[in-house]
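Hi, does anyone understand the following?
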Amino acid sequence: MEHRCSWPGNDPLMIEYHDREWGVPVHNDRKWFEFIVLDIFQAGLSWRTVLHKRENFRRAFDDFDYGKIALYDDEKIRYLLADPGIIRNVMKINAAINNAVKFIEIGEEFGSFDNYIWQFTAGATIINKWRSLADIPATSEESDRMSKELKKRGFKFTGSTTCYAFMQAGGMVNDHLVHCFRHAEVGLY
């Protein structure tokens, strides 16, 4: 029997996310932006809530096309605020639009957002060896630095805790517990 981290519980969507996606190193700007949007909307909520609305977010936010999102106007914001399939928070919607603009600026400066973001872990995944969920931190020195730099560049909803969740999702840190079958697997990417 495979052992996995306990946080997905018995929720099939959470299990699929844990088993196939969480902690796998990302090198695709569209995927990075998807995680930025989802992590904005997670602030103050559970990941389960956001994950169960992910496909609605994908539809509502033009498949996370940051070029399109950067151009959203008041009419699109009203449309999003009326969409019951997503989390309807005007501050978070405005943050997603703002962050799309800043994301593009970083891509232009560094060649891609991917080139920029991996500098916070020197281009490699940090392999942690946690034995229990209680051992996993909410922030790290790297997420503190990332948060500070993103805020300096004008990003919104990018506190250190959000940045650490972003790092976990995008495989910048491997926070699968050591007894989880995915701990070794994600180290192979």
User: Anything to note?
Assistant: The beta strands are 126-127, 173-174.
